[in-house]
Amino acid sequence: MPISPPQVSELVEKLVAEQGFDLEDVTVNRRDGQDELTIVVDRDGGSDLDVLADLSNRISEVLDADPELAEGDPYVLEVTSPGVDRPLTLPRHWRRNAGRRVAVDVAAREGSEARSVTGRIGRLTGETIEIVMNHRGRIAVESVPLDAVTTAVVQVDFSQPSVTELELCGLDADEIERRRARDRTQLNN
User: Fold this and answer.
1) Can you list the domains of the chain with their CATH numbers?
2) pLDDT(1) > 60
3) In terms of Cα–Cα distance, which of 8, 39, 38, 42 is closest to 22?
């Protein structure tokens, strides 16, 4: 019997939460006679490979202990964090990506047409997200109601935003310096 995403979600959701993560997605693809099981997790502050490897081992133990899965076909397990191509659909997705570049499609509303907005993810207040835009050095902030967002995806971004942009995104001085240090390290490697 093939593995089903709801079955896996039910088995691992509690463990994932106990480890401080949110279970974002479970997918199963069948290839060459075995299931490829991908579990996407995320948490505030992100994660590193060692933590994900430990979580993967724990999830594997839970899955292997389930009699129904133990008797089934072999599977390959991948535990990963969301990639940049994953859509932002929940408030926590916006919060966790503050300061990152995003492309947002906004639905038409009374008095306005559908449009696209590109900028940095700013403050999340209630049901509104601020998008910080830099138009050739002129910085503007636009508030977008979350219920008007039809799609939103983090963009791959090689530019270095100004301190002003990042402050408007709600990042504090320590976080701005941490990101700048990381960017300098990546440029030197």
Assistant:
1) 5-80 (3.30.300.70), 91-188 (2.30.30.100)
2) no
3) 42
